[in-house]
Amino acid sequence: MKFKTKVKSNIKELREEYNLSQQELADKIGVSRQTIYYLEKGSYNPSLTISFKIAEVFDDKRLKEIFYQEPVLKDILKNKTLEDLDRIASEVGITTQKLIQLNKISDDQLNERYTKNELEKIAKKLNSDYDDLFEE
Amino acid sequence: MNNESQAFKGTISRDFVKKEALKNNLFLVVVALGLILTFIIYLVLSGNFDFDLFLLLTLVCVIIPYLIIAPISAWYFAAYKRNFSYIIQENNIIINHGVFTKMRATIPYKRIQNINIVCGVFDRIFKTYSVKIETAGHSAVSSGTKSRGIGPEGYIPGLKDPHIIENRIKKMIFQSSLPSEGLEEKIFKPQELAFDNFISYILSKMREGELLQTSIKELREKINLSASQLAEKVGVPLQTIQHLEEGRYNPSLVLAYKIAEVLDCTIEELFKLK
């Protein structure tokens, strides 16, 4: 079992650091402003050339600093209040602590400490599917 | 993944019940009048018009059956409407119908050939429409039938605005007929960027590998991995890896990340912008 990840980016913060508007950044790279918008929104899987060109604009930063992979689960858990987490944890039958830990552990620790059954229940409680949050 | 394509659930309108009831009643009235006419003709011809007999016949053969049949069929249509629902999902449309035998038809978009909207005589009175979904082997040519085999595979009657559902289905059909996952993710999602991406994709293909330089092959061979083994670990077809190694393919960031993970290196070591 592994966490399913998606690529998120720091482009907005970097862009503001470098004092660039979305349009200016788009022009520098050779794409439309909408592309930048969707990149920042995080709902877009860019091609490598665009990614490299963006890195170039930001003084050849490493791609890892601009685009990072984050478990899909993290986003979802982030938006839950402590009460929500307490409730979900008790409905699944684990401690709240164990639920929160999902945000911080690695894939190996995931396999050690959780059963697939628990993860399926957790996914359901989060209004999701096991396959959206985890993969083999 | 059902994120942007939310499933669309629907039911049919009340007017469907009214329409079927009207149709039914009209039919029963016609039958009743026919029977009464038959009795009259028979009694007149037999020379002895016994009014009491006529009344008795009319009562037994016309009025009582009507009083029984009409409410039963009204109940039936109401139950039909109640049990009728459809769900427009990511890959198919599901139609639940049936009163005594509950049936559930699942029609994958890939099989849909045609969508017809029908408005019959009675439909026009109540402003309802029917949507008929044809697949290969199930045509709507014999219109009006809901039976298997000859009738349309998908039949949704009693809709007030059929264009909503027609457009929904067409949109889903389009989405499910898009090219393979890899390409789709790169180019056609989100739809607003499709043209943008399509142009740059074509350009990069035209300049065949002009843009990226890759050392996948060397790094792969360093750890004794074959191309097909790498493809399997990353979760893409062998062709993708082959194209990448030949420098003919502009991969997505996610793919690059996955390969870097498997080969235990950074993306910059794998790919360079020329």
Describe this structure in words.
The complex is a heterodimer of chains A (136) and B (274). Chain A folds into 2 domains: 2-70, 434 Repressor (Amino-terminal Domain); 80-135, no CATH class. Helices cover 61% and strands 10% of the residues of chain A. Chain A has helices at residues 11-17, 22-29, 33-41, 48-57, 63-66, 72-78, 82-92, 96-101, 107-113, 116-125, 130-133; strands at 2-3, 5-9, 67-71, 134-135. A two-stranded antiparallel sheet of chain A has the order 1-4. Chain A has a two-stranded antiparallel ribbon with strand order 2-3. The longest helix of chain A is centred in the middle third of the chain and has 11 residues, at 82-92. Chain A is elongated, with a radius of gyration of 18 Å. Chain B has 274 residues and is an alpha+beta fold. Chain B has 3 domains: 17-81; 85-176, PH-domain like (Roll), CATH 2.30.29; 208-273, 434 Repressor (Amino-terminal Domain) (Orthogonal Bundle). Chain B has helices spanning 14-45, 51-83, 121-126, 162-176, 181-188, 194-206, 216-222, 227-234, 238-245, 253-263, 267-270; strands at residues 8-11, 85-88, 92-97, 103-108, 112-118, 129-135, 154-159, 212-214, 271-273. In chain B, a hairpin with a 5-residue loop joins strand 3 and strand 4. The chains are: A mainly alpha (136), B alpha+beta (274). Chain A binds chain B through residues 6-7, 30-32, 34-35, 38, 43-53, 56, 62-64, 67, 69, 132, and chain B through 1, 185-186, 189-190, 192-193, 196-197, 200-201, 204, 211-212, 250-254, 256-257, 266-268, 271, 273.
